[in-house]
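Internal tracking record. Fields below are filled automatically when a chain is submitted to the structure queue. Please do not edit lines marked as system-generated. If the sequence contains nonstandard residues, flag them in the REMARKS field before resubmitting.
Queue: standard
Priority: normal
Entity type: single polypeptide chain
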Amino acid sequence: MTRPAIPVIITRAQPGADETAQRVQRMGLSAIVSPVLTQQDRSEAALPDAETLSGLVFTSANGVRAYSARRPDRTLPAWCVGPATAAAAREAGYAQVRASAGNAADLAAFIASQAAPATKPLLHVANAAAKGDLIKLLADHGFATVFAPLYDMRPAAALSDAARNALTCDTPCLALIHSAKGAQRFADLCAEFCLNHLSAAVISDAAAKPLNAIKLSAIQIAPRPNEAGLFQALDTALATLSA
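SYSTEM-GENERATED OUTPUT FOLLOWS
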């Protein structure tokens, strides 16, 4: 099926933004990379010795990259929240990669179904703003977990010129939203625009909420909170525009 030549604004942080852009381009669409968050590593964050841990828990590819930059060891089991995070772990060289589907609750249940609590804790690597919900969920299953906030996600100062141009035009365009924090920053940066020509594909209900303030043409929520689900939402948004 021939797709309309509609620009897609990719708000994901780098380096994932470029990966998403390549996928958008393979669909025959115009990819506009405009990250609304920037990853900042926290070199001062403490990191337990690998020998004191029973495994690693990654809830994003960014967490995989942040930990891998600090530690050469790749022997610990890597529990990953979805296929994109698992792919990043495999690419980084981890020998034992185990991936769940869905969100943090699904990951905790998956870990409990595949392993028994050990005397050594798991290590959850995430950004400093993570709420700690996963640690609580794992504790409910009997797992001790240590948190390593190895990076921050800082808000971008502005949208790219190409994104601003797309938002200024009256022709239809789309935005891909990968997180609730990214959605809030995108909404802040878009406050000056009239956006009745912009639709968004978002990764979760939580990521949709901040967008209600900027009155988009439509919001499509991913059926699953991962990259594959987000592209399903993008397909739905495209079909709606093409109808």
